[in-house]
Amino acid sequence: MLIIFDLDDTLIDTSGSVTPFKMKECLKCLISAGLCVEDFEKAYADLLALNGQCAKSKETLVRFVSQFGRDAAFAERAIKELFTPLPSDFQIPTTPHAKEILEYFRESHTLAIVTGGHPPFQMEKLKKAGIDTSIFSKIAIPEDSIKKPFYEGLLKEFSLSPHQVFVCGDRVAMDLVPAYELGFKTVHMKWGRGTKIETEKWIHHSISDLSELKGIIAK
Predict the structure, then answer these.
(1) β 165-169/2-5 pair status
(2) What percent of the chain has pLDDT over 90?
């Protein structure tokens, strides 16, 4: 059995740690570039609220600066900040029981990560969360966040049938729809942006704690 995990808001609590920090740094960057805000804390709160409505942080920043009459090009200087290295002492918490569940399955199942994003930054997040990367037989990081080709590649690489693969992620469209289309079993992690979904069509199982995978996969 192959279990494919997303990283952000599936194995690690990105929305509760990395995102607030990065949004604040992005706001500082925008102000340094000439964005005028009357109240930093209010602007920061507005930025976080907007981020909860958007599918991606890049979209958040573009929409935020548009409220000040600025275009997407102006937002680019802050978008770059999203992927700069974190402070050396920055720690990222995992989601509940993530490390325990990885240890539980590592001997009996093949584990992989398919996560969208900037590869060096995604690997840095794994390190700062204290997750042992040797647990995974494969770590794939598509920068365009298109995961289906990587799911197909893993299916061939490990010579598996679709019913032998589980995919666990928080974002239905990005993580689970392509898995469902390939005939994989899908597990929706209700965390971060994943707490807001419009349809359950593509979801076989829903969890809010990775320890729930034990019962799901045992069946």
Answers:
(1) parallel
(2) 92
CB 95 within 8 A of CB 11: yes
Average pLDDT value for residue range 87-104: 97
Q: What share of the chain is helix, strand, coil (3-state, %, to 5)?
A: 50, 15, 40
* Cα separation, 1 vs 105, whole angstroms: 10
CB count, 10 Å around CB of 18?
Answer: 23
CATH number, span 2-13+91-218: 3.40.50.1000
Task: State the Cα–Cα distance between residues 169 and 155, nearest whole angstrom.
Answer: 17
Domains of the chain by residue range: 2-13+91-218, 18-83
Half-sphere exposure of 129 (CA within 13 A, CB side): 27
For the chain, the average pLDDT equals: 95
pTM over 0.90: yes
Q: Which of 159, 36, 169, 25 is nearest to 86 (CA)?
A: 25
The string of pLDDT tens digits covering residues 158-198 is 999 999 999 999 999 999 999 999 999 999 999 988 887 76
CA geometry: angle 171, 7, 211, nearest 5 deg: 85
> Does domain 18-83 fall into CATH 1.25.40?
no
